[in-house]
Amino acid sequence: MIQLVAQKTGGSVRQVCAVLGAARSSFYRAAAPTATQVADLGLGDLIAALFRRHRRRYGYRRLSQELADRGVTCAPARIRRIMAQRALHALQPKTFVPKTSDGRADKPSPNLLSGQPLPTAPDRAWAGDITFIPTSAGWLYLAVVIDLCSRRIIGWSLTDHLRSELVLDALLQALHTRSTNDTIFHSDRGSQYGSTLFRKALANAGLRPSMSARANPYQNAWTESFIGTLKHEMLQEGCFENAGDARTEIFDYIAGYYNTHRKHSALGYQTPQPVRGPNPLRKLSHKTVQKSVAPHGQSRPTKANQRPVKAGQE
Asked: Long-range contact list for 161-168, CB < 8 A, 24+ apart?
């Protein structure tokens, strides 16, 4: 206040203090930064660096755990205050509403996960799902396989069609790096998962098929949640430029971030990487479909802001 009065009146600090009856020493003592302010400055720089590293995907809870992993003890409320002071606003996810189709699988399998606790070891239960991926050139389709213990994406495939080969490629990728022992494979009742081709692949790998109830997305909420997270943190209501851009970005997100660096609240804010147990390399037991390999691009192409036009909406 003394500094403000001095600036507005043109008087000196000595004159203002004399008029107010305040000691000049109190002014200079108040003007010096406190120990807390000095500490906040260094901590704020670290928080800002971590915030940028995770591309606005981390809020104060995950940042608190990230700091703890680095040996920095800090209350979440303090992190929240510093983020507000520095205008560090994390991406805000929309309310999660899982969706699914009615499904057309012939002779759907029973739900083997119903009423059962989640597995406590990797490769006891996997889940798969399909989603659309928008690009400026049209629609692509992404199939994923997730391990329900570690929440690690262990297989994925991206194509421009919805044939059974889409989900089979994702399964083959998972089988290529993971071991199975009476493992459950859970999905919705989509026709791809109920196809003869996919059921034969499950049987050859020793996987037990499991399906959600009809039009019940909550019974496969693990994959629905991942899909929502991927689209929110990558697309942000936009779309990819083309198929090559989408494949490069999705590979970078899954292999370079989601599986290795992103902390999951369901895992006690651990990453899926430490949860994974040692698994011997498993060779493919069938070669019905050639496995597609995603390119390992290093650059991050920009995304277009426009959304593709569905067939019939031109």
From this structure: 162/130, 162/192, 163/192, 164/191, 164/192, 164/195, 164/197, 164/198, 165/197, 165/289, 166/130, 166/141, 166/192, 167/128, 167/130, 167/143, 167/192, 167/193, 167/198, 168/197, 168/198, 168/201, 168/288, 168/289
